[in-house]
User: Fold these one by one.
Assistant:
Number 1:
Amino acid sequence: MEISLDVLKKKNCKLTKNEATNIAYMISPTTVYSIGSAMPSADSRCRCTPPAYVSSKKQKRIVSFPGLCPHQEVSPGNKRCGRKQRDTEPGDYRNPCCARNTNAVMEHIRTTKVEQVKLLDRFSPSNKSAFGTLYLTATHLLFIDSQQREIWILHHHIATVEKLPLTTTGCPLVIQCKNFRLVHFIVPKERDCHDVYNSLLQLSKPVRYGDLYAFSYNPKQKESEGVLGWQHIDLKEEYQRMGVPNSYWQLSDVNRDYKVCDTYPRELYVPITASKPIIVGSSKFRSKGRFPVLSYYHQAKKAAICRCSQPLSGFSARCLEDEHMLQSISKANPVCRLMYVMDTRPKLNAMANRAAGKGYENADNYSNIKFQFVGIENIHVMRSSLQKLLEVCGTKALTANDFYNGLENSGWLRHIKAVLDASVCLAKAINDENASVLVHCSDGWDRTSQVCSLGSLLLDSFYRTIKGFMVLIEKEWIAFGHKFSDRCGQLDSDSKEIAPVFTQFLECVWQLMEQFPRAFEFNEDFLLQIHEHVYSCQFGNFLGNCQKEREELRLKEKTHSLWAHLLGEKSKYRNPVFDKNSLRTLPFLEPNTIHFSFKFWRNMYHQFDLNMHPRQSVPSLLLKTIDESKCLEEELKQLKIYYSGVGGISPQLVTDVYQNTGHMAVASWEMKNMASPM
């Protein structure tokens, strides 16, 4: 049998079946080609379809290559793929480098297709289920049911895979995702279930960065656009917007080679009176070398938010350079010499760290300093709390009382409250007292990032815009070394390092949006999309644990930026009730942090549970209404133009008929009847 494969748009290129298979696998190992089907046009073709197809005189036969893309498995002559919305686009694998990466991944796939798989709906009152086909590709797990509805799950989104004991109906396979999707399959044959289970275990836990999706994701855009995408956020411009450098703060190059602190960025802002020996000496006295640096400068108050890690003080150690460093920060504020040192840990935890030679600052050694503990728990407590919350969310047929009891017992909202309480405390110190604040936790990259970023957002309305929020994340989380790779479980590493620190930050922002719905330019979908891609590994922004790692991985050359993607769809993420005047009239937000003011974020933790009663937020509903109104106005405009030349029909008559019918097709039929001669 011969197959005609139009790889490079050359006609009548005859290849043997093996040659066609090898070439197709090299170009796109995630594609299925249908025999006899015409090649889709560039506009209608799915993104993961390369410019190639297979044809044969034999009809209604499917050729499946390894790592198939099932929505290309269509009947002959069907030119459009009938794919529906998925959680993440599968991407394009025409890059030869991508093919090499994908070939390595394909070795883990033991079976690409399993039929007659049952998908259980955990919230259906009648134990509703759907039958369909399960596919494994190089990047996604895909389930297509008998109604052609699709569920796409990125391998990197998978947190856990569990194969339950065999039952009379088949072998259960439960998949828990990092974006809080939970799917429960019943696979007919235990051997197939075992193959899928083992494949997903390896595909969801890559061992090196080069196997992550971002290095093979190749959207349809020019190469120059990919480079420009990384230039949307410039932190030097952000510090200039804040008013630094100035007569109190300077840009230091002490860390230009990452020799002082390898988890800090190259460019750091420090007090102008802090010399290099003071900086180096302070770094040696701080955990991981993370010495005090500028995080945010309030130009009007002349006060600063600074961040660092815990001191290596033990029970009695001191460091003169570190004491001078804190004194320099205090002197950099000409309005108020009193400075707060905010330790975000519970005091008991900080005291316990003294036994390991760490701990907290001794008040006797620092002048003009006021110390405060705010009691945010560590990553292990947060991870356990989230697990309890998800257990409550996954329990079927709970009464409202049982649900709220479970929510309370998980402690999740108490932790959200603790983070916001600390952020409000920081913001009020600057806004009300003009005092500078130094924030730290243990290593200065988890709780410190939460409090510094939220405090800045409360103080500065710029961070409540779409662009400003991206800048805030880039500055406080990415540049200052929040360990995204470890905390999000990007690679197969220590599971005890995984923690929902960034998820908590996004939820705190959502809680603020609920209290101040007109103060934010972005909507809830914006937060959900960022959360989605923090775990998807589709873009390079959140890969790695620090800037040094990202430079070594050459992410700006080899991957794409999420910010360019989000800015390209800015209209989708705009809050329709946003008040632009709030940027001026509400420079400082002071939220209510009483316990009952915190809500359960349903659209985060139940966003994939479609059979639950939908509860669309008011801003989202308003945005949808606005979009529909624009579509109707455009239809009306086209209708007026179409019938403008018909005698005796005025534009006003068209408008009246259209408003009465409410639909262009009906209005058009009415107008034809009116225009046709008797």
Number 2:
Amino acid sequence: FGVEVISLGRERADGPGLLLRVPDENVTSQAGRQRYFYSFRLENITVPEAFANASAVEAAGWQIDYVDAQLPVGANAEQLAAWAHQLPSQSR
């Protein structure tokens, strides 16, 4: 199970395209960090195939970067995991 989100602006002022995958299939290389991809191009961005491997995303002109993954203040990771497992399978 995974979700891939791509954000592309309508005009140059909207900034670079972003691509984020949750969960990230590359969890071992940067523990505690979330990998995302961004495009330096502001126009004519090549969108890779859905869930293409990282080398294919880079070949399409996207760059890899990381952001520190943190729970919101007061969040309990165990409670969140238990809640997610209680959801019906259609919701996950």
Number 3:
Amino acid sequence: MQRELSLTPSQRVQVDSLLGESKERTKKIWESANEEHRKVQENVRAVLTPDQQKKFEESFKRGPHKPGDGRSKEEGRTNEDHRSRGTSDPPMIVPRQPASSEKL
């Protein structure tokens, strides 16, 4: 980014600081969201029959999105997917822009 924007040394320090602060805040948000997801999974398991629990567990073992499983690509991603890109940080989620043929 420094080269693309031709940042001055002072600007680089400021931008690096802002990005570092944001990373820390985002990390806390993801940790909280992961904990909530874990709790929901436990609560769902508690109401399922043993056969349903097995299917529920298998759905998580499948990993990333498989055609026809009803999950979006983002919903199917795991931390392993992030690590394979060279980072343990989750991707930034950017709202999808409607195609020109879609109605708003």
Number 4:
Amino acid sequence: MAARQQQQIENQQQMLVAKEQRLHFLKQQERRQQQSISENEKLQKLKERVEAQENKLKKIRAMRGQVDYSKIMNGNLSAEIERFSAMFQEKKQEVQTAILRVDQLSQQLEDLKRGKLSGLQSYSGKLAGPAAAELKRLCQELQIRNQLNQEQTSKLQQQKELLNKRNMEVAVMDKRINELRERLYGKKIQLSRVNGTSSPQSPLSTPGRVAAVGPYIQVPSAGSYSVPGDPIKPQSLTIASSAAHGRSKSVAGN
């Protein structure tokens, strides 16, 4: 019985030793796995860090390229601005020269208007060479321009006078037409009294009946004429009056 128990104890001890060995092996294997996992994690982290560094490097290179491109563009823009500045200064100088030229011509024109042409001619006699020729040419040009201005002023004055004349003629014609309307209205009143009918309305309130006497003539304003035509002949007044008399006689005869 004791030997049997002793045998069982030994077997249990052997099983315990085997389990301890197995446990030790599993622990070692687990340590190795944990080490490998930690190494893989470290490696993954290193890879991620390397990739992040590479991305940063790419961004830095791209930004550096943009900076270089911006520098090139800024250089081009600076050159363009300098070129435009030079052109602006040149144009400004030309404008100043033109202003001085205009001032000189204006002064010469004023001198011509004030009757100082003789003084300019005597002064041009003191000059010699191209300056005298240029001054003489300018004097002739100013004389021509002054003459053209006078002609244009005279034409405008004639056109204004003609326009006023036509306005007066139209006003006279309108007055004549109003007189003819009043006479026709009086004839109609007399005719209605003879026939015993009611008196007709005033021609001012019935423009439709007066339209048979003659067309409505609108007196134009001074600004409505672009180019005045031929003046109205006096014969048109006599024709309109004779037509109105004939019509009034025909109405009276009826």
